[in-house]
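Weekly modeling sync, notes
Attendees: S.R. (lead), two postdocs, one rotation student

Agenda item 3: backlog of single-chain predictions. S.R. asked that every request posted to the team notebook include the full sequence so nobody has to chase files. The rotation student volunteered to paste the first one in as an example of the format we agreed on. Action items at the bottom.

Example entry:
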Amino acid sequence: MMRSLFSGVSGLRTHQTRMDVIGNNIANVNTTAFKAKQMNFSDMLYQTTQAATGANAANGTGGTNPRQIGLGVKAAAINTTITQEGANQSTGNPFDLKISGEAFFVVSDGTSTYYTRDGSFDVDDAGNLCMASTGYIVQGWGVDKEGNIVKGTVGPINTKASNEYNADATKNAQIAGIIDKDDSDLQNKDGKIVNFEVYDSAGYPYNLKFGILPATSISNSTREVTNTESIYHMPANIYKVDTSKLSFSYPVNGETKDLATIDSPEATEKLIKDIWAEINATKSNAAGYQNIIAAGAHTFGKDDEITVDLSKFFANNPDLNIDPASDLLNITALTVKFSGETGYVPNNTVDYPISDATKVADEVAKLLYNNTDSKTHTDGFVSCGLAGAVTVAATSQTYVDDNGDTVTKWKFEKVGGTNRKPLQLTDAQSDAMRKLLQLKASDGKTQQYTTTETMQDSAPIPGQYTIKLLGMTDSNKVAVDVSSILDDSVFTVQYDTGNGEFQYVDSMGNSTFTINLSTINDRGNFENVTVDMSGTKNVGNDHKSTVEGKRLDGTKVGKLLGVSVGTDGIVTASYSNGHITRLGQICVAKFANAMGLENSGDNLYQTTASSGDASLVDIKAEGIGSITSGILEMSNVDLSQQFTDMITTQRGFQANSRTITVSDTLLEELINLKR
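Predicted structure, as returned to the notebook:
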């Protein structure tokens, strides 16, 4: 028989095998993470009809090459294109995962371990991350009680997480920004105010309020003081009055427009007087008078509003001289807003509106008058303060300080017979008290005298400030009693006097101070809060400080938002309070020869002697790739390449079939020789 027949048969078989490989590649063109196969050919055994010979110098002959006849072709190898990644397919499913690089997911059926590039995972009823197609569970590392990944024995990745994250009490905070020494806020009683929020262990928020003030040094010296003392016999009653300013507006085409009162000053002045007269009921009951307040009511000292009927106002005042261009002639109703200020007057005979009242805060008036609560006077909307006769001695004390500057200070005393009781006032209260005394002129009892007194002066310490806790409120702005810790909540902050850089709090090397909130647990379970001041500077900033407070930890109770997988394979649960909890980490497998893996169907691979054992690693730590969530790897089959290979395979098969046909013809001729 002819050897070419057997060579042709081997060619047919081998090309058929290659066609089987191509057909399988094309069939899996849409299989997730499928890796195309490539088949290589090699020739088969050779029949040697004459061995090779070497040169023979004795006979003078040269060498001859071997004479060999090949016996056909065979499949040399079928390789998997493991290293060639497929394209990305976005799914939006957080548990669809794609591996970049040459690593594999590790899955288990409970008995055997498999490896796959197919990251189409799902979560079963037990919370395990598993393959959507087979249910095999994805393997990885678990976490300890603190949420740290424990890279020991691998096991199932479970995505179950608590529906709530417990609240944490705030332990750390910071104050950062610029303290400008020329900021006017630093001269206030409490200084520059800084607020920040903290949480207790139950998750309830509270606001801590701090004040920053320039630190001062106190010095005592003897001064020649010129005293100018005036005695004021204050009236038994002073009257609290409403000094609200009135503004007017009206609607035009869906918008609100302010009334220009200068258009008709006579009309607007009369309107203001009529409004106050009607509020105080001094005119609303008059014969023939039409009430002009159509809606709303004004409450003493409040910023509220009423509506005025202009047609009734004009009916009450027919002889008004109104500018023809005034808006008053084009509208029927006005909205009148009250600004809500109050003041004090010495008697109740004034008419509204009142413009010359002494505008001081109620707490200053209460230094002299025990009762400044609102009481409606019968003659108008006036509040009386009843306390009996009060005598006040106001003394200006003038002296020259160490710098040669003339300084004037005030002291106030309540006089009762021969006794005097000093009034302890801040600078702002001292200014207000002088205004209050203007309600009653001096009785002419003014005397001037010189004394030698020990004066206490204060001077700012360059670069040094004090920060102190002023108070604490809950989420409803209700004050929390922190009186027990206020004395221990005053701290000194030092800055470099040259460049303004932060130096320390209280002592060199210390950058924080601690508020001992844990001692006030009557309102909640607080932790002591350590506040970092190292982020502050004492430099110029256009006379404006920018210091702000911020808590660095502590949260309210959080609701579970979802579970996700990071690029490093770490599975985390996210909560509404910003907390993230680690649930585990997906491990990956790498191989010395990934092309040596054996296909097991269902997009699974198993190890072989050629692939070597799997090394289970952290994909990011090893630097071999990453994991992407919401994306699947598509098949890497290239159809154009497969169709080209199909053509060459078809032609190869066809040519081998011709070899058999021609060999058959030769045999036929040989047989015909006998005829």
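Discussion: group reviewed the output briefly. The mean pLDDT is 86.
Action items: rotation student to repeat for the remaining queue; S.R. to check formatting next week.
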